[in-house]
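S2.1 Query sequence (Ribosome maturation factor RimP)
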Amino acid sequence: MAFPDAQQLTDLLQPRLAARGLDVEDIKTTKAGKKSQVIIRIDGDKRPSSDVLEEVSDDISAFFDEKEETGELNFGAGYTLEVSTPGVDLPLTSPRHWRRNQGRKVTFNRGDDKSHTARIGALNAAEDAVVLITSEKNEVHTEVERLENIAHAVVEIEFAQPSQRELDAVHQPFAEAES
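Output structure tokens follow.
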């Protein structure tokens, strides 16, 4: 059996993690001599604590060992496993990323190579459109954007607190922002 790729491992792990309310966000594998490396980024609507990450890591390790014993997986001579949450550099590629980052500032483009910055508001029920909040001086503006129109987006690291008006807009239901 060949060294497993990221998609194969995602397909194996996603059902196990879904039972815990978690998603596989990213897997990187590196085949390297005696010690290969498997890095798994997981997340959930409730961000996993370090205790949960440790439990999941132990579970995945035992699962991989079992799969190697049956010949379903082959990591070579051995592997190092790292399980953690994604950093802020993970692109927002699915509706759950937008939902989980509501209230945070995001830099995005609409495929026009122009960079825009806004705060993430509510998603609609279909999870195909999001409220984007910008502020200029003391005015807060909201706009609705379809997720399919956003080509690339990443969360920005902020050091300043947002204004109360921005925070109020963040918590406004989608239907109110749309009107």
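The chain has a mean pLDDT of 92. The two ends are 56 Å apart (CA to CA).
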